[in-house]
Amino acid sequence: MIVVTPSIRLDEREIEETFIRGSGPGGQNVNKVATAVQLRFDVRGSPSLPEDVRARLERLAGRRLTGEGVLVITAQRFRTQERNREDALERLVELVRQATERPKPRRPTKPTYSSKLRRLEGKNKRSQIKQGRQKGGFD
After folding, report:
1. pLDDT 10s per residue in the chain (139 long)?
2. What CATH number is given to the structural domain containing 50?
């Protein structure tokens, strides 16, 4: 079990890893060894995630989410397969952690009296500048 928060744990069986050739650092090994990791996590089919977290995670994932609701994370920053696996898993856990945070509700506010005055003064100054450009402005 992968602990994300005290209440959310992901089962390792829900995560699928495949190893591919990476385009990053690797020296002479880069064309021979599959060090990059492609991690797949089924967001829509996961029993570990509450419904609200699932919806926020889908929004946060953006283009990394496939049409079927599978989150795909590709890690190829490091030269070794093991470090790339850890990196991909850390990125998944961090993404799920971000999805657990509820967004603050926006409280609509009204502009203050002084900000209204500043806005009107700015408009008035601009109006004066433009009126000075009209014909007959030279007396």
Report:
1. 776 676 777 767 777 787 887 775 566 666 677 778 888 888 777 777 888 888 888 888 788 788 887 888 888 888 777 888 888 888 888 888 888 888 889 999 999 999 999 999 999 999 999 998 988 755 5
2. 3.30.160.20
Task: Give alpha helix (H) positions in 4-137.
Answer: 51-61, 81-100, 113-132
The answer to whether residue 51 sits within a structural domain is yes
The Cα–Cα gap between 42 and 13 comes to 11
Euclidean distance between CA atoms 92 and 48, whole angstroms = 14
pTM above 0.90, yes or no: no
Q: Do residues 99 and 52 make contact, with C-beta atoms less than 8 angstroms apart?
A: no
User: 69 in the Ramachandran plot: left (φ > 0), alpha (ψ -120 to 50) or beta?
Assistant: left
Task: For residues 31 and 22, give the distance between their C-alpha atoms in angstroms, rounded to a whole number.
Answer: 8
Task: Name, in order, each residue with C-beta under 8 angstroms of 71's C-beta and a sequence gap of 6 or more.
Answer: 40, 41, 42, 43, 57, 61, 64, 65, 92, 95
Q: Is residue 109 part of a domain?
A: no
Instruction: Name the domain count of the chain.
Output: 1
